Amino acid sequence: MRPFGYERADDIARASRYPTGQGQTDAPVQFLAGGTTLIDLMKLDVLRPERVVDVTPLTQSHSEIEATPQGLRLGAFATMAAVAGHAGVIAGYPAIAQSLQLAASPQIRNMATLGGNVLQRTRCPYYRDPSWAECNKRTPGSGCAAMKGFSRQNAVLGVDEGCIAQYPGDLGVVLAALGAEAELVGSGGARRIPFQSLHRPAGQPHIEHTLQPGEVIVAFRIPGGEVARRSLYLKIRDRQSYEFAIASAAVGLELDKGIVRQARIGLGGMAYRPWRADAAEAALIGEPLTEDNARAAAEIALRGAITHGRNDYKPELGRRTLVRALVQAAAMET
Ligand code: FAD
Ligand code: SF4
User: Is there an atom of ligand 1 within 6 Å of 29 CB?
Assistant: First the structure.
């Protein structure tokens, strides 16, 4: 690991004075929360920050979990384990608890925070190995080794000719599906943004998010109600534990005598960023949730998928995952 400066921010005002960059993945100043992404990538020599700003003291003030039937507020410094095991989250927002329970390992979930989780970096093997020269995300303008290489895990939705990296996180998919907001605090004050606008679309692979320099994610807000209660997260992976998704679906439904009144659909393992399938949601409204209608919605959700050989299997796996998730959600007791 290369030498770097270490500083500690005891409060949010101090943290937000640090110039953490304009969303670029390798910004020279990085916040350190649980460290399970940052330190990992520093050891691999992928991230080379000049300064690491330890923001763990913010755990004291920004890790509360407030679950009511109207809504859920999750402090961004809460650990994945704390949220996964919270009774109010499990009962009122099951997809959130499941996405965290199914992620990583118990040790990582005890260390890692929600803020760090949503900003984790892609697992594209060429990004994580600096011996590969071609990676637009790591070295802008160098090309993309994955396009003609080992693309089995790479994305099929939201990609372009510059980068087909898959967004690897689980929680982010649920936050996108359930229409969450992120609360941010920076030197310019506090603001709230839709979670879906936190991650940038493809175009400039080395610039991933929309945070301003020094801006800290302090919380996530998720609306409550029937769609949150009747929500689930289905994760398909190569092995049953300690593995990233090759396909996943976060769904939420409001049903009235079997007819869909509201639907929420997020897809994981498929896309460049946390993915909400709005058009597929719209196709379900006013219809009974049958397997045929779920399949029709899944066809819409994966429309426009672009594959690169080794990930040709993904669109069909994505459709089947979504159908299964919708059928299971419709059968839930709420
Ligand atoms: P850090 O490593 O401390 O930070 C990550 C990034 O976020 C840094 O750039 C940091 O500057 C920035 N940051 C952190 N907090 C904030 C904040 N509040 N505001 C602004 N910027 C911030 N994840 C899954 O979802 N599913 C999995 O199956 C899964 N499997 C894993 C398996 C392994 C072996 C490992 C190592 C990780 C796995 N992960 C998985 C990823 C893991 O969940 C993330 O590494 C973790 O959640 C990151 O949180 P952290 O607090 O450790 O972040
Ligand atoms: Fe790099 Fe993106 Fe190509 Fe992977 S897919 S090699 S992250 S540019």
Answer: no
